[in-house]
Design a protein that fits this description.
Largest sheet: 6 strands, mixed
CATH superfamily: Uracil-DNA glycosylase-like domain
Radius of gyration: 17 Å
CATH topology: Uracil-DNA Glycosylase, subunit E
Strand content: 5-15%
Order of helices and strands: HHEEHHEHEHEEHH
Strand order of the largest sheet: 1-3-2-4-6-5
Number of helices: 8
Distance between the termini: 44 Å
Shape: globular
CATH class: Alpha Beta
Structural class: alpha/beta
């Protein structure tokens, strides 16, 4: 039966946080809460799927892979309470999209301006590796999010998995990326439907600790996204 309730970010959030479609992911997210690392011993874990976070009127959307088992899965907010979030929100702050450079808890005062952050998969996966089937079961949430975030014109995909997820969501929504299919790379850019999509290496410790992704490299992607939004404002005028 089709619901008569109009879709909204609140309705979507309720659907996301109550989802139990993927048994492997449910097991992983709940197991993390039952056996946390010593540094989080005694912490109360969210241990449910994660919604997006930010400005509902945002023009910039940042898309990651999935919440971290002891990050968003613990705190209840995407990219909050882990090293990846430290990098992402510091970059958003430097680019003028966040009021502070840190994201430690849902009540830490963080506010995003003209930006919204979400993920392709909403539950913490084992070894940070969701399966294609899990992505496909989750992709409808991103499709709905894109429809509800009607002012988004620029998307930053963090990593190849997020890049592929954005293209899949766009295709599901009826927007063809064209041929040849845009390939992911750091600094890659593609026009897909109404969106300009930028690629960045993911802000994972695997990339940031090794120097594969530096602050300057991440800032360059945000600067390109900001410049695109600024050009759109001038054009609209």
């Amino acid at each position: 039966m089709t619901s008569s309730v109009p879709d909204s970010l609140g309705v979507l959030g309720d659907a996301i946080t109550s989802c139990r479609r993927c048994s492997r992911l449910v097991k992983c997210r709940e197991a993390a809460a039952k056996a946390p690392p010593r540094r989080f011993a005694g912490a109360s874990y969210w241990a449910r799927p994660i919604t997006g976070f930010g400005d509902p009127d945002a023009r910039l959307l940042v898309v990651g892979l999935a919440p971290a088992a002891n990050g968003g899965n613990r705190t209840g907010r995407v990219f909050t309470g882990d090293r990846s979030g430290d990098w992402l929100y510091a970059a958003l702050h430097r680019a003028g999209f966040a009021n502070q450079p840190t994201s430690t808890a849902v009540d830490d005062g963080l506010v995003l301006d003209d930006a919204y952050v979400t993920t392709v998969v909403r539950c913490a996966p084992p070894d940070n590796k969701p399966s294609p089937a899990e992505r496909d079961r989750c992709i409808g949430y991103l499709v709905r999010e894109l429809a509800l975030l009607a002012r988004v014109r620029t998307i930053i995909a963090l990593g190849g998995f997020a890049w592929d997820g954005v293209l899949l969501a766009a295709k599901t929504a009826g927007h063809d990326a064209g041929k040849p299919r845009p390939s992911f790379g750091h600094g890659a850019m593609a026009s897909v439907g109404p969106w300009r999509v930028f690629g960045s290496y993911h802000v994972s410790q695997q990339n940031t600790f090794t120097g594969r992704l530096t602050e300057a490299m991440l800032d360059a992607v945000f600067a390109a996204a900001r410049a695109t939004l600024d050009r759109q404002v001038r054009f609209d005028r």
